[in-house]
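ok new one. same drill as before - structure tokens go in, u give me an amino acid for every spot. 274 of them this time. try not to just spam alanines like last time pls lmao
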């Protein structure tokens, strides 16, 4: 941790008391949310150091102090589902615990991107060789997602959905000028983004509705060409890497935990009962 980060951490978190740290104000260093837009496809925002290391440890403690029954083991990762069951007809709601309400409300208030308070949080845990298949988050959610990363850095890859690739090939045959065709191909290119610990990734618009996102299940993840490569690699202490020719990789040595914040607009009145 550099001295500026250390100073910020001391300022934001007044001591290691047993009190849970308040999640500080949106750490945008005086910038507007639009200043964090990365890439050219609408719309991805990447906010480094959204929380401090102390807040990160507190959230990890909360995640790991939950009853083990809260974890659901999948083939390639574990997850906790908070906020209720997402059904194709809407959300069968459950109250979020206070430690999640705290941060969910901050993301809601400070981003201004959700029409109502965030009511659903998925927590994913990945070992260094685990990932998540390319997928879309689906129509049950309002089409904005915010992902807070804790622990090991990873690279998230985005690729246009096959329906968009079909559009592209139709366009290639439609006699566009080559400049326009190049623009179209560039616009729909796959891209990747390094998710450093404590960062917040937000995506919406075409990236939500027309792209797939995923994380490869490898301990080494290619990071050359990532939208935020320069920014993420400035913090060399946090990115353990290896190079092979022109390609650079980050090495995952620790577990990663991510918190995915979303809003389900349609909420059933009846509380979900076990
Ligand atoms: O762990 C992540 O960063 C991604 C999680 C995700 O895509 C999801 O929960 O839908
Ligand atoms: Fe997702």
């Amino acid at each position: 941790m550099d001295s500026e980060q250390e100073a910020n951490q001391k300022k934001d978190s007044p001591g290691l008391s047993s009190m849970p740290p308040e999640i500080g104000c949106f750490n945008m260093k005086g910038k507007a949310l639009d200043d964090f837009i990365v890439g050219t496809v609408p719309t991805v925002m990447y906010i480094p150091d959204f929380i401090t290391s102390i807040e990160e440890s507190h959230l990890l403690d909360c995640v790991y102090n939950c009853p083990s029954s809260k974890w659901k083991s999948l083939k390639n990762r574990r997850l906790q589902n908070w906020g209720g069951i997402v059904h194709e007809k809407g959300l069968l709601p459950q109250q979020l615990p206070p430690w999640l309400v705290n941060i969910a409300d901050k993301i809601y208030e400070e981003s201004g991107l959700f029409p109502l308070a965030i009511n659903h949080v998925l927590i994913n845990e990945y070992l260094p060789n685990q990932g998540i298949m390319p997928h879309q988050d689906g129509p049950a959610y309002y089409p904005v997602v915010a992902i807070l990363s804790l622990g090991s850095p990873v690279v998230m890859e985005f690729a246009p959905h096959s329906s968009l690739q079909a559009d592209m090939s139709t366009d290639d045959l439609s006699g566009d000028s080559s400049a326009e065709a190049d623009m179209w191909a560039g616009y729909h290119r796959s891209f990747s983004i390094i998710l450093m610990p404590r960062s917040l990734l937000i995506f919406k618009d075409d990236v939500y509705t027309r792209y797939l996102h995923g994380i490869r299940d490898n301990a080494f993840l290619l990071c050359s060409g990532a939208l935020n490569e320069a920014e993420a690699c400035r913090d060399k202490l946090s990115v353990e890497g290896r190079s092979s020719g022109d390609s650079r990789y980050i090495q995952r040595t620790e577990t990663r935990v991510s918190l995915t914040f979303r809003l389900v607009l349609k909420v059933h009145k009846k509380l979900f009962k076990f």
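The chain is about 25% helix and 30% strand. and btw Residues 1-25, 168-175 have pLDDT under 50 and may be disordered.
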